[in-house]
Amino acid sequence: MEHLLKIEGLDVRFNEAAHALRGIDMFMDTGEIHGLVGESGSGKTVTSTCIIGLLPVPPGKVNSGSMIFKGRELLKLSEAQRRRLRGREIAMIFQEPARYLNPALRVGEQITEMLVLHQGLEKQQATDRALEIIDLVGLKGGRKILRRYPHELSGGMKQRAMIAMAISCNPSLLIADEPTTALDVTLQQQILKLIQSLKQRFSMGILFISHDLAVVHEIADRISVIYAGRIVESTTKARLFEEPLHPYTRLLLLSIPDAGKRGTRLKTIPGTVPDAEHIPSGCAFHPRCPLAQEICRHQDPKTVNYGKNGEVHTAACHMIGKKWIDS
Amino acid sequence: MDRFVELKALSKQFHGPGLLPQRRGGTLAVDRVSFGIEKDSVFGLVGESGCGKTTLARTLLYLEAPSSGEIWFDGTLLGELGTRELRRFRRRMQIVFQDPNSALNPKMNILHSLEEGLINLGTAKDERRRRIVELLELVGISPAHVRRYPHEFSGGQKQRIVVARALSMNPEFLVLDEPVSNLDVSIQAQIINLLLDLKTEFSLTYLFISHDLHLVAYLSDRIAVMYQGRVVELAPTDELIHRPLHPYTIKLFSSVPGIRGSILKQQQAAVPAGQQKAATTATGCPYYEQCSRGDAACLQEEPQLRDVGNEHFVACLKIEGNIPQN
Amino acid sequence: MQVLTFALRRFGRLLLTVLLISTIIFFVIRVIPGDPALVIAGIDATKEDIQAIRAQLGTNRPLIVQYLGWLSDIVRFDFGTSMISSQPVGQLILERFPITLSLAVMGIVISILIAVPLGVLSAVKRWSFWDYLGMVFSQIGMAIPSFWLGIMLLLILAVKIKIFPLFGSGSIRHLILPALSLGIARAAVLLRLTRASMVEELSKEYVITARSKGLTERMVKYKHALKNALLPVITVAGIQLGYMLGGAIIIEQVFSLPGLGRLFLFGVYQRDFPLIQGGVVFVAVIFSLINFIVDLFYSIINPKIRIR
Fold first, then answer.
1. Do A255 and B185 touch (CB under 8 A)?
2. Which of B23, B74, C81, C298 is the most buried (most CB within 10 A)?
3. pLDDT digits (tens, 9 = 90+) for C189-240
4. The pTM is what?
5. CATH second-level architecture of C98-260?
6. CATH code, A5-89+171-243
7. Nearest CA in chain A to B212
8. A231 interface with C at CB cutoff 8 Å
9. CA of C165: how far to CAs of B123, C140, C155, in Å?
């Protein structure tokens, strides 16, 4: 059975010098929330930009790879064809709703314009449908909400409005780029619950991008960890947190503070995330890796599936199976 | 007995836009906050946006003048000091802000940024240079880069420089307002470890403000929870995570996603979402509208912080406790 | 309701502004050298003649008395009588106003018609031919004084090729060249503003959202971005209209248009106090009114600052 989205070897550069994506391999299915976890500069936003087709083509350039969405190769589509997919099949929600909503248009208009454009509804029908949708996302207030401008809504309501816009045409894939990062803890919880309910209701696949492992732990079914433009580990949530394979994943988990670690020093990852113009040779993580050996300096490891019993647990590392350092 | 830093009924009112003396509108950002911070401890302050924690931090350091209340630092009442004396006290209290980009002047290289405070102290040039090299090494920045400008450093490095600058004044008390929020996860741990090392080495006292509850629970000895300008709960960390009492504390801490389960040690019965009650007047408990336990009595009286044992204080009418003496 | 309070507050401010300005002018013109009595009396007049004229005009009274007298007239909308021409000031102004008004309105319309489309095009097709055209135009437009442009237009289109009349008034044709001179100069500034504003809006995050929704580029640019981009442009255009209404004095001189500008200019030459004062009050009111209307309009179309 084909995946909802399958990306293979996606390679993207900016202005030749910046190697933003160096061969991304990942897949996800309908009804799945897939967490894409990475720090800033890791390439997670570039990946999402490529999927939705908004990569600015100069300076960006896709050198190779494939993105197959519902059986169609996205990279072979024309701009017009890709535009038709946007909003209708692939939708996106963003981090700071205050900036990502048009301040001069009413909320209702920002929803109905999609329904009119993509589904050919009449204005009145579109408004009725918009009313249903905002109710679904927890925006109580009916027509009054539709008539409001974004700045008249609270932070949480703005985010819900953005979600309403995104799901209005029943997309098969929803990309959520750090949707809760700018929100308070209690609001974050509400939005996460909302997103989970959407998965059930609409049978869509959700690509949830975040730098926060705890949030991803809460919401994702499967997780891919991205570092310096490559997916270094990818598996189910349970396996990632119980048996992480890649040193980066393991160190990340060790470095996250929580109450249980009180009194002990946090494990840190020395150094910083490399920027796209200065990717280390061989395995990009080797300068920071406690397990690094000679081979790590020269050879970029291949992605191998270490999953048992038909499960998929991929990782790209030469040192899998070797003895781990003391925590 | 007063602690190293002591706040007594501290309030900060921001005025509304009116012309007349009785400015209409305006917000009471900090509302009669009282707590004390022990020397050499880490005091954590949590709350959601708008709760007043940043205003509290700024008022505590006299970056904004308090509207009322007292701030005691090492046994001295700050409000009674003249300008010059206040400046001397200020040197002992420093702040590290969230965004290193706005904390560092982009037009000054870091040598100048770091020198400023030392020049004010009247330090001689050679001594200044020596001290700056010392500070940079302390925070892990190579002194060879001292003439570089902020934009030439990464976020984590900038934050280290900001910490170095705060330390240049030899403070005893450091307010850290979201010091690692803008940084990547792997860098956060580095900065946190640095802060802990510095604390031990220089015998520092920290007021740590953050929205990252895991981090606060990890670092702090005591935690205060703020809601709409007031402290609603105050307790040692272990006590708080084992026995959270205020409905808001419970809601806040159980909303935080955690990899190893909830921060709260005991699984709390899920507090049902409070029915949105009608907006109330200024009397009564500020949390009434959201609270699932609230009733008419909660509108009548304003809850004060009550001692419930184990150095644990809660401001909730539904919880039994004793009003503290001071 | 809130729009009403906003309106009332602004109106109050308007009255205050006008009062302040006219009071200042009142005293200023009496302090500067120059005596209308001398102007009326002529070169050969005797001292007694001049004194007599002063008594007639009322300029021999103490300043405060003159001021209070004038103030009490103003509140009854009595602008007094021109010292030089003996005609009621109010009437003189109203006769000339339509011409200046037409000129100003035509000027701003021309301005907008040139600046906005070209500015938007420049922003949307940056570094293209249209963009360069726009930039060159705006550079030249800002450097050329409008009166020089006026004279050139006259030379070319009224003298050499007799399309337009050389001077006079009374029909639209008389206004086209002056309106063009005014409008082109102002268009330069407006164009730059439009371009900059549009470029800024196009780089904002909500434009990314709009694209991610699958909207056509046309919708993204002209429905989403343009609406925001025009906001500052409208404000500035409104203010420019205010300036033009004050009497585009030089243009009126060049084209010999009997407008307010010329009227006030001569009033100042001749130290015709009531005329000058009446003129200042009039211009202050008009300008404040325009600003007020622009602000009101702006607050209606910009949902963010509504009603504050």
1. yes
2. C81
3. 899 999 999 999 999 999 999 999 999 999 999 999 998 998 889 888 888 8
4. 0.84
5. Orthogonal Bundle (1.10)
6. 3.40.50.300
7. A185
8. no
9. 79, 26, 11
